[in-house]
Automatic annotation (TrEMBL):
Residues 266-288 are annotated as: Disordered. Gene3D superfamilies: alpha/beta hydrolase. Keywords: Hydrolase. Transmembrane segments: none annotated. The lineage of its organism: Bacteria, Bacillati, Actinomycetota, Actinomycetes, Kitasatosporales. This is Alpha/beta hydrolase. Residues 33-257 form the AB hydrolase-1 domain. It comes from the Bacteria. It comes from Streptomyces populi. Pfam families: Abhydrolase_6 (PF12697).
Length: 288
């Protein structure tokens, strides 16, 4: 695979909703949509590039509305809204056999998408240190109002490797980070980082789901991740040693090896009708 040049495009799903996508790989490759967390699309570009390079996939990284200066319509106020608009985009473009990968907040979005996918668009799911559910005794650590260096200390196995001197940040960069955090708070701040109904719904998701977890994550613990994986009908849990909340950044080789094993194990499986919850669909195959 040699076509790893990235391209950016914006589509209007509706007049007030421009969606910006960064794409890697051949335009006719199997689609892999890779969903970022609060840190923005740059944190998951490596996953999309890897899938394009190794498998010839079309790796697509959307910028969630409100991140990196993009527009967010007033009605888009929750992760469920985010999941629905991405499913609408997949359906509108006629995609099938889609691999969905999500990191942190993006993992929550991916799980919500899988539950709502009555149209059998998604065939495989990978969650990386995802938030989005309630696990007794394993709360998601509070990040809003916390200094960036504290968040880094909770996020990485080796925070010193990823330390950024605040004095080196431009005013524009600081403003962008603050705006991204404000968007995360708006979508996931109340209730904090979870949908209270999601965990009980995931048993109706019948596509294969890999839940990857950095062992040193102190934002969301491995114990939380194990419960998440067990909620899926075909879930599997795997840890990445010496990695925290972003194992694909901290230990990409180990993370990609686990990702590849999942992709290889389910290659060509496709998706089957009725993979969701059995709840009647609304709006052409997307559960609201």
């Amino acid at each position: 695979m040699t076509d790893t040049e990235t391209r950016t495009r914006t589509v209007h799903l509706r007049p007030d909703l421009p969606l910006t996508f960064t794409e890697t790989g051949p335009a006719d490759g199997r689609l892999a949509i890779v969903l970022h967390g609060g840190g923005g699309p740059a944190t998951v570009q490596g996953i999309a590039a890897h899938l394009a390079d190794r498998y010839g996939m079309r790796g697509v990284v959307p910028t969630h509305p409100g991140w990196n200066g993009t527009e967010r319509p007033d009605w888009l106020t929750g992760i469920d809204d985010l999941a629905i608009i991405y499913l609408h985009w997949l359906r509108d473009e006629g995609h099938r056999d889609v691999l969905v990968v999500g990191s942190s907040l993006g993992g929550w979005t991916a799980a919500e998408m899988a539950f709502r996918d009555d149209g059998a668009v998604i065939s495989s799911l990978v969650l990386v240190n995802a938030v989005g559910v309630t696990v007794p005794g394993e709360p998601v650590r509070e990040i809003f109002g916390v200094r960036p260096d504290e968040i880094a200390a909770y996020s990485f196995h080796d925070p010193a490797r990823f330390a950024v001197d605040p004095a080196t940040l431009t005013e524009e960069r600081i403003a962008l980070q603050q705006a991204n955090m404000a968007s995360a708070r708006l979508l996931a701040g109340d209730p904090y980082m979870h949908d209270p109904k999601l965990l009980n719904r995931l048993g109706r998701v019948r596509i294969p789901a890999l839940v990857l977890w950095g062992e040193s994550d102190r934002i969301v613990t491995p114990a939380y991740g194990r419960v998440y994986a067990e909620a899926f009908a075909r879930g599997r849990f795997e840890t990445i040693a010496e990695a925290g909340h972003l194992p694909h950044v901290e230990r990409p080789e180990a993370t990609f090896a686990a990702l590849d094993a999942h992709v290889d194990a389910h290659a060509g499986a496709g998706s089957t009708p009725g993979q969701g919850s059995g709840v009647p669909s609304v709006g052409g195959g997307v559960r609201l």
